[in-house]
Amino acid sequence: MKRFVWIIGLIFCITCTIQAKDRVIERPPFLAWSSNSIEVDKIVMSDTVTTVYIKAFYHPKYWIKIATGSFLKDNNGIALSHSKEELESTLDKEFWMPESGEASFRLIFPPLPKGTKTVDFIEGDGRRVLSKIWGIHLDGSPANSSLGWEKRTRRKILYWKSRSSKMVWES
Fold it and tell me: What are the distances in angstroms from CA 141 to CA 15, 25, 28, 29, 31?
């Protein structure tokens, strides 16, 4: 009987460790961006989907819109577009910014290929690109460009100043 309990316990432990774990990258570093109105807050990668959590910053009570043709492009040049459910529900619709001027949302993509180290987020339909975030690092390595961090820091200073009625850029 003790042997049976040990075998069941061992099988349970092996099953728990073999289950696929989601890989989470919080505030991933990136090389550059073309607009400081959106930034990638978190990327969750699993075997079935890649979920990109995005923070948007814009004037309170104005609207923003994420284009239907937005996609992720990995370091091998493979482009991944949104899931069909998401296309029908959230994209190409006006989203009115709250009083805070900040909002969060997520975009769902197919799973990234194994070994992907960086991705680019392109918002637009290919012909017309609205914004890009280049070189989002998924492997934990720092970005080799100061553009990403500098803009991220400057935007926070601008946002803080705007809340106190002073729209001033500071270095």
Answer: 31, 11, 9, 8, 11
Span of 48-62, 92-106, 116-130 with lowest mean pLDDT: 116-130
Is the pLDDT score of 84 beyond 60? Answer: no
Could you tell me the strand order of the sheet in which 118-124 lies? 32-33, 129-137, 118-124, 71-74, 79-81
Contact (Cβ atoms closer than 8 angstroms) between residue 134 and residue 143 = no
Read off the pLDDT band of 71 (50, 70, 90).
Answer: confident
Long-range pairs, 38-45, Cβ under 8 A, ≥24? 38/123, 38/131, 38/133, 39/133, 39/152, 39/155, 40/121, 40/133, 40/136, 41/104, 43/119, 43/136, 43/138, 45/111, 45/112, 45/138
Exposed/middle/buried for residue 162 (C-beta within 10 Å: 0-12, 13-18, 19+): middle
Instruction: Please compute the mean of the pLDDT values over residues 156-166 and round it to a whole number.
Output: 41
- Cα dist from 59 to 70, 132, 149, 158, 168, whole Å: 22, 20, 22, 12, 15
State the pLDDT at residue 100: 92
